[in-house]
Amino acid sequence: MKDIERILEQLQKHLDEMNLENEEEINEEVQKFMQSINVDGLEFENTPEFKSDDLLEEAYEAETEKEARRLAKKAVEVYPDNIDAQTFLANMEEKPINRLKKLDWAIENARKILEEKGFFEKDNIGDFWMIVETRPYMRARNFKVETLMFLGRYREATKECEELLELCESDNIGIRYKLIGLYCFLEEFDKCEKLFKKYNEDSAFMLLPMSIMYYKKGDYKKAEKMLNRLDEENPYIIDSIQNNGIYGELVEYYEPGSEDEADLVRMEFFYLIASVPSFFSFVEEKMG
């Protein structure tokens, strides 16, 4: 992941130096740049920033928590502005309150860096994540959302999600899935439907909270309709909800329509499912 982001950063730097304005010339230069990588490879500058990223990669692959922490701290020492390393260390905090404090510290540092570089100017709002330099900031805030939810601070988590979607309208990191669940949990039904219509997506991560939303709203026909659509998208989810409880093992990768996706969807919305115990009976009645 980091290597890809490094390449994108180098590409952007190269295009800035070329100072091209014509779209056709830009596309041509991008192709030349990518071809040169395929032929010759890309040598990254031996800077503190890249050294720090390499240390962080080692931290992710470390066999023990102690070694991972040591490497991540070293990454911050080598390059204090490594926000991903700060976030990594924050997420190692066992107590969620301490984790949140350290995440806030990393987020504040990241925001200062981005503001100094002009990334919070109006023209960039909505395009975060597509701008590679904003990704560590977005990742840190995504972890903050998860921590707030773990602490039961759902309205704060909702506000974070809304702000993140303003910064990145294309939602490359799936904030909409967290937000639609939160809207349903908080009974913000109009916002729930509006978000569903905005992304117009028959994803299992959207259909399950929508079914629960209609159930809570008392519109049982629509709740059943969403369940049927959910079953079409992933035939394992209904069984997963009925038989596997609300917890399970996280998987790093999954394919749409797979059992792994079904388990992830169930765990993503465990707080929502648990808040409506009678929904289990409804699922059993309608889906068998």
Question: What is the number of helical segments per DSSP (H or I, 4+ residues)?
Answer: 16
Bin the helical content: over 70%
Low-confidence stretches: none
Q: Largest sheet at a glance?
A: none
Give the averaged pLDDT, no decimals: 88
Indicate the radius of gyration in whole angstroms.
22 Å
Number of strands: 0
**What gross morphology would you assign?**
globular
Strand residue content: under 5%
Helix and strand element order = HHHHHHHHHHHHHHHH
Would you tell me the structural class of the helices and strands? mainly alpha
Distance between the termini: 42 Å
What does this structure look like?
There is one protein chain. This protein is mainly α and 288 residues long. Among the domains are: 2-40; 203-288, no CATH class. It is built from 16 helices and no strands. The chain has helices spanning 2-18, 23-40, 48-61, 65-78, 83-91, 96-116, 135-150, 154-167, 175-185, 189-199, 204-217, 220-233, 237-243, 259-268, 270-274, 278-287. The longest helix is centred in the middle third of the chain and has 21 residues, at 96-116. The relative contact order is 0.06. The model has no long low-confidence stretch (mean pLDDT 88).
